[in-house]
Predict the 3D structure of the following.
Amino acid sequence: MISRAITSQSSFLAQFLDFGFKQAWSCIFPVAIFATLALTHFTHSPLCFRYDQILIVCLLVQAAMYFGKLETFDEIKVICLFHFFGLALEIFKTHVGSWSYPEAGLTKILGVPLYSGFLYASVASYICQAWRRLDLRLEHWPKSVSCTILGCAIYLNFFTNHWIFDFRWVLFALVFLVFRKTTVYYTVAGYVRHMSLVLSFFLIGFFIWIAENISTFLHGWQYPYQAQHWDIVHAGKISSWCLLVIISIILVAQLKHIKSRAADDADPVQIDNTVKVPSISME
């Protein structure tokens, strides 16, 4: 029994380390952005505005990841799509006063620096990287129509909540309803584990909220209540990040599903409602 306990502990440690290693590699782009925010916050260049420096670094990191074979061309296309949607949301949110980018910059559009779109793109980069490295598989993925309508409704609510009722809690209820049977399977150290996809939405959203606190502390952007001195980002923002994560995973999953169907390839790594993954309980 002692030998079995030692083996079990060793197995758990191996899985934990492998999971951490793969997560760290999946966060290359977000970490690069945080490092740039920190470096440009504590150092100042007379040759270039800070926001422009961050944009240049983001472009260079993306190029390095692509040519270094860390990202595929399809993943780059997904990241560009997220940059577009994220930038559109940033322009709207700064216009209504939700937050601001008070520093100067040559690469600002309607008061928003272009690098801000990469903050959303970094979430897409993480999801794409983690999907590949952890060999993610989804079982009982909802119908495409349900996912598309839900994703669009969540995105629109980020805009309409300034004029009409904020439907985020209604949307969360729909998320539970639509994804209540969906399970995500991932592989660590040769073992297949699984968890509820809904739970993963909230876990990722929580850690993004922590990252947002670091970013605002480094003056990547600021909320109105942070204008005089830095304060922790309201915990209510966790729900906003969860909703963003839900949109992100829906979009990435749907694009993978479309590509899989177009290639007429029943690859179990992609989304396929017919794929049956053996149930493996968490030990």
